Amino acid sequence: MTDLHALQEEIKSRVAEACDVHSVEQIRITYLGRKGTLTRLFQKLGSVKPAQRRELGQALNALKSYSESVLRDKLRDLATEPEGLDPAFDPTLPGVRPCVGRLHPITQTIRMICDVFVRLGFEIVDGREVETEFHNFTALNIPLDHPSRDAFDTFYTDTGGLLRSQTSTVQIRQMQKRKPPLRVIAPGKVFRPDAVDASHSFMFHQIEGLMVDRDTTFSDLKGILHVFLRKLFGKNIRMRYRPHFFPFTEPSVEVDVSWGKGWLELLGAGQVDPAVFQAVGYDPRQVQGFAFGLGVERIAMLKYGIKDIRLFFENDLRFLRQF
Ligand code: DAH
Hints:
single chain; alpha+beta; 2 domains; seven-stranded mixed beta sheet; two-stranded antiparallel sheet; about 20% strand; binds 3,4-dihydroxyphenylalanine
């Protein structure tokens, strides 16, 4: 009986090691063939004392069916294993961890900002990067000979188009195709022929906001910006409205924020100028509203303590992995 047990272990390990159909067949012949080990043991059964014959017979039968079944299983495994498996492939080695990407810090900042405005009922809309003179300047109350064109100057295409230098163009596009009331927010790229340094880039991102209704006032603007800036920078933030000039708003302000010492200019805003409403066919006696525009890089730099705007556009993974 002890020998039978050892025999079972032997068959088991030889079957486990077999790596093709041929060696499985060899094992079958060795143990179950006409001259196989088990076959010969069956033949010897007759010479065993009757008292032990029954027990030994049962054990032999059990071993035989065990062997048949492991051989059958092995053949099935071999048949389903993919062909041409590289013998050097070691499935027990740890895998190669896939590189998981993440959102660019500018994208994260845009989403964070838009999130706040969406909750305030604003709809996210899109414009164009290649624009017309009308949308970037004329309709925004910046006539050809007006000196404030200089501040928003841009790149021009051969065919008379231009790369928009402000997302304010989306105000015009939205009002041209929709009727008031309107509450939209428009994130996107803008372009200016600026020399690149730590705080300037020829391409950066802005988010434009526009709300138009029958009686949308400057205090609505203040309320919205108050909620927004506190959500973004925390409840301890202080805000200041400084009179300013923008051609497309009247009155216009620049909004500064402070955490205690010093003020930082953060965004431009104001009540939409009646001339802009006229340019898109709205009646300035029927509607009023506010607009604002902010630079995304500026907010991201403040939020994450980044000192150089160029870091955003160099695609250096050591920088990008930190967000
Ligand atoms: N378009 C302005 C810029 O690029 C930002 C701006 C200021 C947008 C005031 C506005 C606004 O909508 O009301 O500097």
